[in-house]
Hints:
There is one protein chain. This protein is an alpha/beta fold and 296 residues long. The chain has two domains: 2-112, Rossmann fold (3-Layer(aba) Sandwich), CATH 3.40.50; 123-234, Hypothetical Protein Tm841, Chain: A,domain 3 (2-Layer Sandwich), CATH 3.30.1180. It has helices at 34-45, 61-74, 88-101, 108-113, 115-120, 141-146, 196-204, 218-222, 237-246; strands at residues 2-6, 24-25, 50-56, 79-84, 123-128, 154-157, 163-166, 181-185, 208-211, 227-234, 249-251, 258-260. The strands form three sheets. It has a six-stranded mixed beta sheet, with helices on both faces. Strands 2-1-3-4 form a four-stranded parallel beta sheet, sandwiched between helices. The longest helix has 14 residues, at 61-74. The protein is globular and about 55 Å long. It starts with a strand and ends in a 36-residue tail after the last strand.
Amino acid sequence: MLQIVLPVALPPVPLYDVLAPPLLTLDTRDHGDIDEMVDELGAACTRAAHTLLIVPSWLDPATRVRLRTARRLLQPAPLSLVEVHVPPLALSVLARQLTVLSEAVAEPSRLASATPLLTRELVIGACLSSISGYPHGSVPLHAHLSSYLPWTAFVAMLGPAGGVARATAWRPPASTAMRRTRLLHGRPGTKGTGWARAAVALHLGASTAEEVPQAPQAAAWWGSRRVVEFVAAIEDPQELLNAVLAAPARPCQWCGATVIGNSCPFCAMAAPHPAAPTGHAPQRTGPACLGSRGAE
C-alpha cells in the first residue's frame, strides 16, 4: 500500500464515497532543523511499505530544499518525492484521489508515477475579483483595465487551454469536456463571485457541485484577495482507476519498479528511451477494487 503525505495542512474534500487510508500531514512550519524533518519523515516511512510525499511548488523554497535533502538522506527507504504545480484546492483533490486509489493499485510505483496523469484529468480554475496580481500567465491589457471596474469578476483556468476571461463572457474550452464530474468550489465571497456553483457547474457539465472550505493559501497562489477556487474531478473512482491501469507503463531499468512516464518515482532514474507498454496486465488488489463503503 502507498501512504500519501502532504507537507502542508489543507482542508479535506468530500470526494468519493469510499473508505480510504488517512492522509498524513507533515507540519513543516516547525521543522527549521533538517534532523527533525528527517526523523519525522523516517517515522512516516515505517508506517507503510511505500510513502509518497507530494510537494507543491508554492511551498517556500527553503522548505522544499530541506524536504529534498531529507529524502536523499533517507535513501534507500521506499520514499518518493513528487513536486506538483497545482493550487491548494487541486492539491487537496489530488491527495484524496491518491489515497482512494492506494488500496486498489497493487504497484505503489505505478500509482506514484501516475501523479501527472491524475493532474491532467482535473479541470482547475478560479473566479477572481481582480487579475492585477495574477502570476500564472500573461493577461491582456484590456483585462487589466477592466479589473478596476466595480463588481467585475474573472475566470482563470490552468492547463494547455487555460487563460483569463471576464466571468460574464467565459465559456470553458472544448478540451475541458469531461465525463461525469463533481465540481468542488470555495465559498463565494462577493456578489461578483457568487456565480460559481451555478455557472461553472453548468458550463463544465458537472453532475453535482459542492462547497468546500477555502484554503488559506489560495489568495496568495492566485494573486487575488477575493478568490473562489474550483476543481472538476471525475466522479466515478473506478473510472479514475481504469485510467491509471490503462496508462502505458514500463519496468525501471535500475530498480525494476513499474512506472508510468520517463522517471522512476522511487530511485529517480530516467528512462533512456520513450516508455513502452508492459507485456502483462496491471494487477489489482482484491476482487472489488473501489466499491462504495461509506465516507472516509
